[in-house]
Amino acid sequence: MNLLLDSHALLWWCADGDKLSRRAREAIASPGSTVYVSVASGWELTIKTSLGRLRLAQAVEGAIEAYQFEPLLLTFAHVRRLSDLPYYHRDPFDRMLVAQAVVEDLTLVTRDRKIARYEVRTLW
What we know:
Blueprint: E1 2-5, H1 7-15, H2 22-29, E2 34-38, H3 39-50, H4 60-66, E3 70-72, H5 76-82, H6 92-104, E4 107-109, E5 122-123
Parallel strand pairs: 1-2, 1-4, 2-3, 4-5
């Protein structure tokens, strides 16, 4: 399975706590899964860190490397798809993750119920 982690899913995976659902945890840990983390999530988490709203145990790039996740860069194809999305969700980072998941044919690992309104595969 090809997965794209929402920012909170990445944080909860790294924290190794119980906030991540069992189903999501199993999918991420599965040897058959390729797990992607968007640069948009790195951007979002860096902004929250710089505003003092979040403390990270390690940099996002370090977490990607430590867990052997794949970085997902932003492309103009993602931006074009973003312009077609209805405004079910106002968060620009979440909207970009939806666009990336659609374009790249990924399953988005998220607890965000607003995202489920989009035509995108989700897992929680």
